[in-house]
Amino acid sequence: MPDHDHEQHPAPGRDDAAGNGFAGLLRERTAVLGTLDPGEPLDDLEPLRALIGDARVVALGENSHFIREFGLARERVLRFLVQRCGFTALAFEFGFSEGFALDAWVQGEGAEEDFARQTEANIPIGLSGPLHWLRRYNRTATLPVRFAGIDVPEAGGSLLPALVPVAAYLREVDPDGLPLVQDAVRTAERFAGASMALAAPAWAELGADEQDTLTATLARLRTRLRAMEPLYVERGGRSAYDIALRRAEAACHTDHQLRAMAALYAGGGSPADTSAREVFMADSVRWLLDRSAPGTRVVLPAHNAHIQRTPVSFDGRLTGLPMGLHLSHALGEDYFALGMTSVGGRTAEMHLDENTAFGFRVEDTPLGAPEPGSVEAAFAEAGLGSDIGLAGLRGLRSTAPGGAAAETGPDRVRMHSGYLHTPVAEAFDGLLSVPVSTVADDLGF
Length: 445
Fold this sequence. Notes:
Blueprint: H1 21-28, E1 30-33, H2 46-52, E2 57-60, H3 68-85, E3 89-95, H4 99-106, H5 114-119, H6 128-138, E4 146-151, H7 160-173, H8 178-188, H9 196-204, H10 208-227, H11 229-236, H12 238-265, H13 275-290, E5 298-301, H14 304-307, E6 312-314, E7 317-320, H15 323-331, E8 335-352, E9 360-366, H16 375-381, E10 388-392, H17 404-408, E11 412-415, E12 418-421, H18 424-427, E13 430-437
Parallel strand pairs: 2-5, 2-8, 3-4, 3-5, 8-13
Antiparallel strand pairs: 1-10, 6-7, 8-9, 10-13, 11-12
Helix pairs in contact: 1-16, 7-8, 7-12, 8-10, 9-12, 10-12, 11-12, 12-13, 13-15
C-alpha cells in the first residue's frame, strides 16, 4: 500500500518554533479535527481515508480504558469508516464466545434492553455507544455491519463462556466426547470471576495436580475436536464445528494466561508469557477475515498496548508480544494501528482490589505535563497541544535500524498515568491526540 502521509492537511500556521525536528515533521503530517461528537458531520475525518489506504483492518486504540474522549473519538471514527469507507465488521476487545449473541442483537434480533442483560457482567470498555449506533444503522443498511468478539472469555476471568457452548455442541455431535468438557467445566466453576484479576488468584488456590489435570483435559478436548473434524462437520456442519473448535482454543489460551498471570502476581513468571491472550486475539481477527465475504474490512477497537506493532516492555523487561505485532506480521500494511492519547487532563488508573466487582478499582488521576521524549510533548511542541490532531506516522519511520527518524522520534507514549517506552513511530501507523482526557462518569462500578 502506498505511503499517503504527504496528502495530510497540516495544522494552520502558528508563531511557534516547531519547524525543525520531529515536532515540525509531526505538524506537517497532522490534520486538525473539528469535534469529537459522533453525531456531527464527518467531513473533517477525510484525511483518515488517505492514511489507511486499502488496509483491511484498522485498529483504534486508547492509552487507558474508561476515558470519555477516547470513547467519543472511536465511535466517530467507526461511523466514518463504515459510512464513508465501506467497513462491514466491528471486532472488539470482547469475548469471542460471548460475541455471537451481541452480533445477533446488532443485526436486529431481540429487544433494546437485551443489550444491558448481555453485557451487565462485562467490564464496561465502551461497547454501548458503538453497538447501539450499529443496531440503528443496520436497520436500513445495504451492507449490514457484523459484530465479533476476539478476546478470551470474560477478559480471562472464566472458561465457562467458552466451555458451556462446547458441551452443548458435543451433546449433538459426539456424546462420547462430552465427559472431557464436563470435567473441565466442574473445575472451571471453582475459580470463575468477572476478570483475570479475580480468576488468576482463585486459580492459584487450586492444587498443582488439579491445575495440571485441567490443562491436560483442555488439551485433550482440543485435540479430539481436531481429530474428529470430518465426522463433526458431517453431523453438525462446517460453521458450528469451526466455532466449537475456536471456543476450545479460547479455553486453552485462557488456561495458559491464568498460569502466566498467577505467576506474575506472585512476582515470577517467564518473559512475555502473557502473550497467549494477544496471539488469540490476533488469530481471532484472522479467523473473522477468513470466514467473511471477500473485501470485508474490519474496525478493531482495543487498548494501545494491544494494537501496537512493537513489543511491550517495562523497565527493560519484555512483557508481551501484542496483538498488533502478530497482525503486523500476518497482514503487513493491510493492518493499520491508530493509537489515541491526550496531552493533558486526567486518566483512569487501575489498582488491583479483590473486593470489587472486577478485581480492580478505577482512580481518577491527574496527568502531569508531558515528559520530554514523549509523543505528547511532541504534539505540544508542534503547537497542537490544544487541538484534536490526527497524525500519520508511517512517513516518520526509519528506513533502516538506527535511521534518523528512529533516533529523533518520541520513545514513549502515555499509558494510564505513566508511560510505555517504545519507538512511537514504529509502534503506530497514526495517532489521534486530544488536548484533555477525562474519566467517564457512568462506569457503574
